[in-house]
């Protein structure tokens, strides 16, 4: 009954098999190996474009911080939701990697930036006014920290408005697969076609051992050299990158990452339906991906914890339960039995 996080799940067997295959013979270092080069073709097919550059890291925090630092100077700011992962879960990594860039936190329900808040923030950008910190980047998260999904039209609208104000658009896609399954969008539609300049494409939560990919699309490719330099300087240039690449190759082959995301989403839907059937339990948030936020009656949370369930507090007195590719119907049934 471990619903703590999708990062608690093991790597998918195909990922382990791919790592084992890559663990043979001599290969060039620092991303010049044959496995890393093969990932380009897989990414090209997945995102329907050749107009990109990419870099791999082992964690989402490193990927977000590296990506954002290339586009936000030390004297600039990044617009993001007040509950975004980069704001509440990364210990100031974007600020640290950018040398002092500021996060400008915007409100909005369901983990999404409110339209009026974005309008106000964009209108307030003034690079000539020395006393304020002008925004250089808009960062969106999909799935959001509330487990909700931005639709393609929503992303495209916000990206167009950010571009008009001179901003770069970043998408934190730690759970991109879950968002795509929820919305029915393709990877291309949710990224560069919607105006996203730089994507941190997460595979770890979906089923990899530890693999996140920074994708620079179109004009953002001009930052490729700087991204490499920052990766090296910060210790995120793995000498044996083939083992990260092997994970990506396995996850992308045959759309495994989307299949696993669909499985996790389906289990979350089943979990939510089962929990709301328990007297007094209510959903705190619509379930759109693989995360379930519920309000539990007095004593139920303690009862579940005593029975061995693992989950964490959510916002506003709720509790968060996360499903992964490993979640089973038996896990859900056991949790519900313990709640009754």
UniProtKB/TrEMBL annotation:
Chain ranges of the Aromatic amino acid beta-eliminating lyase/threonine aldolase domain: 3-295
The UniProt record lists the keyword Transferase: no
InterPro entries for the chain: ArAA_b-elim_lyase/Thr_aldolase (IPR001597), PyrdxlP-dep_Trfase (IPR015424), PyrdxlP-dep_Trfase_major (IPR015421), PyrdxlP-dep_Trfase_small (IPR015422)
Cofactor(s) annotated in UniProt: pyridoxal 5'-phosphate
PANTHER family: L-THREONINE ALDOLASE-RELATED, LOW SPECIFICITY L-THREONINE ALDOLASE
Swiss-Prot/TrEMBL keywords: Pyridoxal phosphate
Family of the protein in this entry: Belongs to the threonine aldolase family.
Quaternary data: Homotetramer.
MF term (GO), any: lyase activity
Keyword Coiled coil: no
GO biological process: amino acid metabolic process
Name listed for the protein in its UniProt record: Threonine aldolase, low-specificity
Annotated source species: Hyphomonas johnsonii MHS-2
Upper taxonomic lineage: Bacteria, Pseudomonadati, Pseudomonadota, Alphaproteobacteria, Hyphomonadales
Domain of life per record: Bacteria
């Amino acid at each position: 009954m471990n619903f703590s996080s999708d990062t608690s799940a093991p790597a998918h067997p195909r990922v382990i098999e791919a790592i084992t295959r890559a663990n043979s013979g001599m290969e060039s270092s620092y991303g010049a190996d044959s496995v890393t080069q093969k990932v380009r073709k897989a990414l090209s097919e997945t995102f329907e474009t050749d107009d990109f550059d990419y870099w791999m890291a082992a964690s989402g925090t490193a990927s977000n911080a590296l990506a954002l630092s290339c586009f936000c100077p030390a004297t600039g700011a990044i617009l993001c939701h007040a509950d975004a992962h980069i704001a509440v879960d990364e210990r100031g990594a974007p600020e640290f990697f950018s040398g002092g860039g500021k996060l400008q936190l915007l409100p909005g329900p369901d983990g999404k930036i409110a339209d009026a808040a974005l309008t106000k923030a964009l209108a307030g950008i003034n690079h000539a006014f020395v006393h304020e910190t002008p925004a250089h980047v808009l960062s969106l998260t999909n799935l959001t920290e509330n487990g909700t999904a931005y639709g393609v039209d929503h992303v495209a609208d916000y990206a167009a408005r950010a571009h008009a104000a001179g901003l770069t658009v970043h998408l934190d896609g730690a759970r991109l697969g879950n968002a795509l399954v929820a919305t029915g969008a393709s990877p291309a539609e949710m990224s560069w076609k919607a105006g996203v300049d730089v994507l941190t494409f997460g595979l770890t939560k979906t089923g990899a051992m530890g693999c996140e990919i920074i994708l620079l699309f179109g004009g953002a490719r001009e930052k490729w050299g700087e991204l490499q330099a920052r990766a090296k300087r910060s210790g995120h240039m793995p000498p044996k990158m083939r083992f990260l690449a092997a994970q990506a190759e396995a996850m992308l082959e045959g759309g495994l990452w989307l299949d696993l995301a669909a499985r996790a989403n389906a289990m979350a839907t089943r979990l939510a339906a089962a929990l709301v059937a328990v007297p007094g339990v209510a959903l705190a948030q619509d379930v759109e991906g693989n995360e379930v936020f519920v309000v539990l009656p007095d004593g139920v949370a303690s009862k579940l914890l005593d029975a061995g369930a693992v989950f964490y507090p959510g916002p506003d007195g709720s509790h968060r339960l996360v499903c992964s590719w490993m979640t089973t119907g038996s896990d859900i049934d056991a949790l519900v039995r313990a709640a009754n």
